[in-house]
């Protein structure tokens, strides 16, 4: 008797995303996974990293993002199988410097200053069309602390560019770069594959990975960078939230192997301790035919973030909106937390709904990809920044306080059409001379709290005295 036929299907390949008109590339998915990808099938060696002879006479090369003796749980590295090894280049020379790029945030550097003053910048100006500024020369350091030579600290930059990099690759030896486009898309060709990133997405390029930035929309472009020294970005712990929520690991996208055959002249620009060096080579650096490992760039669409917040009363702390975090050298203390503010419902009862008045051990640097953000003394605009120093008081304007304490608390959708973010930095941060004096967009008009007369508690002292008297307690006295 013939057995009944069964229907069904079996996957033939692992999951990858599908290319779209907005993003022509496909990606592997999963934060921190170990990936294996081949542009030519059968290129990866089996059960070996360094066979005597790789297929097609490719060169095997390892890139380590952590020390060899790091615990297994924190090991990050990747094996590359490439047409030519990276060592095939001419001698390094001092390159064209970017004078607005800073990496030393010590007290001895006269080009940076620690200040407790609240600062805000209107949208940073695009490059003069008469000047041709690529991504490397378009980096403008705003703030930071620490030093990459100590592998501790970070820097916050703006990038402002109007031309693509031509036969040039950039390799940042100082740290990992979290890049947030605000105006215009970026097309990044990396050694491990291609990535297209738009406003509303982030991309992380780790230290030591070479990449090239082109402007698919023609430019100009503007965006934000947070560069961390000596550590890597991680997903925050979920704690009682459980297995799901916030930034989901499967929503992070990692490039697939992609290579060029190109024997033209190329320049590789390296950044080390904030200085630029370059070398020439007669072949493209983007010749990796296959790779496997977990040290790879990735992108994430911030609109995919799953908000978790109170649904009854009270406020959660802003770190409930943490997308990525990075550890400092102090146990249980982060170097920085990257927070994102996306549309959500506000439904709490008997609660002051705007961000509470605050003095924070952390420095807060806030920016915006798109939308509107008002209520504080300075209305943040896309392409601008705000800065609140450690332990300095900040909060909503008086007018916003009046509105929030008197209006009916109805269920409402907030931040619709807006994507704002914060670098929540657990240290004092120094501001560069360019950001303080030369950017041309520093806005010194802070919130005005003087001259408002007797408001709030002071306008109700008679009522307080009556209540104290009713309780048999002494009045406040003459006022």
UniProtKB/TrEMBL annotation:
Belongs to the homogentisate dioxygenase family. GO terms for cellular component: cytoplasm. The keyword Cell membrane does not apply. Homogentisate binds at residues 373, 394. Fe cation binds at residues 358, 364, 394. GO terms for biological process: L-phenylalanine catabolic process; L-tyrosine catabolic process. Residues 304-451 form the Homogentisate 1,2-dioxygenase C-terminal domain. Pathway: Amino-acid degradation; L-phenylalanine degradation; acetoacetate and fumarate from L-phenylalanine: step 4/6. This is homogentisate 1,2-dioxygenase. Residues 27-302 form the Homogentisate 1,2-dioxygenase N-terminal domain. It comes from Saccharata proteae CBS 121410. InterPro entries: HgmA_C, HgmA_N, Homogentis_dOase, RmlC-like_jellyroll, RmlC_Cupin_sf. The keyword Oxidoreductase applies. Keywords: Dioxygenase, Iron, Metal-binding, Oxidoreductase, Phenylalanine catabolism, Tyrosine catabolism. Its EC number is 1.13.11.5. GO terms for molecular function: homogentisate 1,2-dioxygenase activity; metal ion binding. Pfam families: HgmA_C, HgmA_N. Its cofactor is Fe cation. It is an enzyme of class 1 (oxidoreductase).
